[in-house]
Amino acid sequence: MTDMNDTTPYIWTPPSELAAASNLTAFLRATGQSDYDELASRAEADPAWLMQEVFKFCDVRFYRDYDQVLDVSSGQAWARWCVGGTTNIVLNCLDKHRDTAVWDQTFLVWEGEDKRERRSLTYREFDLEVGRLAQGLHEIGIGRSDVVAIYMPNLPETLVAFFAILKLGAIVMPLFSGFGPAPIQARLNHGEAKAVVTADGTWRRGTSGPLKSVLDMALEASPTVKHVIVARRGSLAIDTPMRKDRDLWWDDAIAGKGGMIETAEMQAEDPAILLYTSGTSGEPKGCVWNHIGFIGSMVTRDTIICGDFKSTDRFFFFSDMGWMVGSMCACVPSFAGGSLLVVEGTPDYPDTGRFWRLIAEHRVTYLGVSPTIVRGLMRYGLEVESYDLSSLRMTASGGEAWTTAPWLWFFEQVCKKKIPIINMSGGTEVGGCIFTGTPNHPMNPGSFARPALGVGADIVDQAGQRVPDGTVGELVLRHSSIGLTKSLWKADARYIESYWSTLPGLWVHGDFAMRGLDGLYYILGRSDDTIKIAGKRTGPSELEGILIATGKLAEAAVFGIPHPVKGSAIVCACVPMPGVMGDRSLENQLSLAIVAGMGPSYRPEMVLFVDDLPRTRNMKIMRRVLRAVFEDKDPGDLSALANPEAVDMLREKLAAK
Questions:
Q1: How far apart are CA 17 and CA 172, in angstroms?
Q2: Does residue 272 register a pLDDT over 50?
Q3: What is the structure's pLDDT at 403?
Q4: Could you name the CATH architecture of 16-88+269-525?
Q5: Phi and psi at residue 298, in whole multiples of 5°?
Q6: Top-level CATH class of 530-656?
Q7: Rounded to two decimals, what is the model's pTM?
Q8: Nearest partner of 420 among 5, 4, 22, 8, judged by Cα
Q9: Rounded CA gap, 439 and 230, in Å?
């Protein structure tokens, strides 16, 4: 079942047996719809109907059923879902499995940077640890609506803390484990966090790194934080001073606790997760996910139904808890009764084949990747062929737009031209997908099968009118959906200004998109990254794809600077492949490749070779930062950068150019 014209050329077309066995096909049967497009049409006309069907199909649990599925009486920006209903993420991800066959199955498998360090927890064992920590948090005064931050590396305790906080009805604030004191402090103060759960330290590339001491510096001016729970990473020799009356070792917090504590019954739209995303200027934006919103969107509608995650799957997405995928890793497999692989460190250390070994040894069936991870692993050649990846059943991708070369490499070398790439795109503010892939639809490089169900996605011009197929436009949402952030934390006016005011009545997401002539959908980069050459708007990903296709570069970022004649001139910031010299000869090759692919008007003003590109913790390249540094302007909020040193190195390169 592909819903597509069979004469259209595709790189991959779903085998009939795969589509027949998919969760999406089962959902179509359950709802009485003939195909995805018919289902999507009904969902757009009646989003409340869709969500009722999702709840029923996926067995979403409520303590008290809702009185009204959807209330838009205050406008789309302030839509309310499951009015009168009560639930909890923990009810749906852990409690419902109690006294079932799932309870004694493996939920979490963990491997440290040293592969000899491994741990495994069944659902029963994991739930016990969640209950014990919840009791410990309750004992120090944590309860409903308190904000509790998690500043931890990838440990089993990180997932335990996530669910323990939610179990009490408190709000989880995930923080990137690579943050320094300043961004931690900004978020703790803005969110008015009452407590932080952290670890003494972690291993990264063979070096032990402190976390608690970094947090201590942030807490020098974070007056709302009254408690810090510190997990021992083990095998570390890090001095960890503890402040009396504030700091408590994890082991002491759970000592003597039996784990029996009730899960808090919360209103369906009570805040559950406060996740910050960086703004182009000013302070970071606090996105608010509620209990029913995240379960109803990313977990069930997007990943289980459209993404085909099954209870027999083992999920692995190399992600820090500070990115939205961290919450996805916690909730998707646990909701479905599947299992999760959690890994400390980086994909290519202590050896460059580590990522592939993890998949092979732990028999991963559902693999998530970002294009950045794939580009990083491509530089090591075809060592992937040395590993048995036969356990893989499905792959998924997200975080940024693909370019053709890494997509094809991943499809050919990892998917073996047989397994689909469920491409997903949404965002922290959306709490789920806007576009998605499915196992029922064909693929082309970087494509999405369809808009996600019931989200109101459209592609429009500057007047808000739908653009024809093959035309690039602004990605918008025509109505609210269940996963959208509930305003911004303490910033209602900023919420309306940021998303609902550019084109009145429409949510403007900030991405350029296109429905291709092949009937598939494409994200073409951030609309504020647009380059206008001789009157023609061009997304940077198109140009970056040409550069990467030369085989000379590991990474490329293209951005525009003002030009008196062309409107914009092109600058290319490039990271050469290992062993490739970033010299004048390579500069000329890359410039000629752009001209050959796009025409003489697109000849770069400058090709700059750098060791790294500024990127966020979820590995998105920050082109606005590159552009601002090049123009010697304020780059805005940099607190979400995973590698702030890349900005200083860029300034040095420009000074020497």
A1: 41
A2: yes
A3: 83
A4: 3-Layer(aba) Sandwich (3.40)
A5: -60, -40
A6: alpha beta
A7: 0.86
A8: 22
A9: 42
